[in-house]
């Protein structure tokens, strides 16, 4: 698992390219929560929008999650821990005043970028 890429993944890069193409500028892999090792993939600091790009397997996608057959109990525990950590991070970010946009790796890049752009523009009071 140490070789598993945690940043600059293909879905994240595609979303970043689309957001940049739309003229949106952002920060990458920022630690927004004190006393946490967790970072957010894409951050818009001014409007306080945090974007989390999640892999379907590692984060238990509601559409694509399948229980493993080899060492199933260990994997179930691992994925449930990831899901709980994601939920806690979202809760803490919202409490800190951020809007959290979750993008799954299976989503179309354009529709995901639309959601992110809408959140950023609403927070900037620019409108669509």
From TrEMBL:
Signal peptide: none annotated. CDD domains: Vsr. Pfam families: Vsr. Keywords: DNA damage, DNA repair, Endonuclease, Hydrolase, Nuclease. GO terms for molecular function: endonuclease activity; hydrolase activity. The keyword Membrane does not apply. The keyword Transcription does not apply. GO terms for biological process: mismatch repair. InterPro entries: DNA_mismatch_endonuc_vsr, Restrct_endonuc-II-like. Belongs to the Vsr family. This is Very short patch repair endonuclease.
